[in-house]
Design goal:
By secondary structure, this protein is of the alpha+beta class. The chain contains 9 helices and 4 strands; from the N terminus they run H-H-H-H-H-H-H-H-E-E-H-E-E. Strands 1-2-3-4 form a 4-stranded mixed sheet.
């Protein structure tokens, strides 16, 4: 039987890599990259493609790619997208997944890091959007860091985050509410401008216009 998302989610090998990768990032001071993040990415990416009318195969591949996209962090944070794609190839091939499906997933995983990412297919575009829009307070693990770490400060300042698709107008909007007493809006742009540009490019691949609204004002 071909592996589906439930098979992937319950696979002990994959779960181990996700947990160990997140443990490494925790020691490096990064925000949460464990099951909360990857499951959110899996759901956001798959829901986006389903709402846009993609077939169930593409939806399922997006869900799997979202769940597995950060396993490369178990090797090293640098080039984790590429190492994660290689790891995913080995795992999915061993599980008997069709090469055509493996190719779509590893392409998406290998193209999700903002320094090397390109929305080369629909699953890759959906994964980029899901990953780069996951900004939320609960990802911050050490509140003391918000005083000196801009990434933690920006994530902690976000009190509300919603990614909304309007299929009628072909618009995808990230709505954020930021506590400006914790973080200035310009701080958000300082570290996330590259990610937002990538989101715009990914949205364009899906024939959408990407918008960013912060505290009720359209900024992108």
């Amino acid at each position: 039987m071909k592996p589906d998302f439930n098979t992937i989610r319950s696979n002990s090998e994959i779960r181990t890599y996700i947990m160990q990768a997140d443990a490494s990032l925790l020691s490096l001071g990064y925000t949460e990259h464990s099951f909360a993040h990857v499951l959110k990415c899996a759901e956001t990416a798959s829901s986006l493609l389903r709402d846009l009318g993609y077939d169930e195969r593409q939806v399922e591949l997006a869900r799997i790619a979202g769940y597995m996209h950060d396993i490369g962090n178990v090797i090293n944070r640098d080039d984790h997208a590429q190492s994660g794609a290689v790891m995913a190839f080995r795992i999915l091939d061993k599980l008997g997944m069709e090469p055509e499906d493996v190719a779509v997933i590893i392409t998406a995983i290998g193209n999700h890091d903002e320094h090397t990412a390109h929305p080369v297919n629909a699953v890759a575009a959906a994964l980029i959007l899901a990953d780069k829009t996951d900004v939320r307070r609960s990802r911050v693990r050490n509140r003391n860091n918000i005083n000196f770490d801009i990434h933690d400060r920006v994530n902690y300042a976000v009190t509300s985050s919603e990614l909304a698709l309007n299929t009628g107008t072909a618009e995808l909007t990230l709505n954020l509410v930021i506590d400006t007493e914790i973080c200035a809006v310009m701080d958000y742009f300082e570290i996330f401008l590259t990610r937002m540009r990538l989101c715009r490019k990914a949205a364009e691949y899906l024939s959408l216009t990407f918008h960013l609204i912060i505290n009720g004002s359209k900024v992108l």
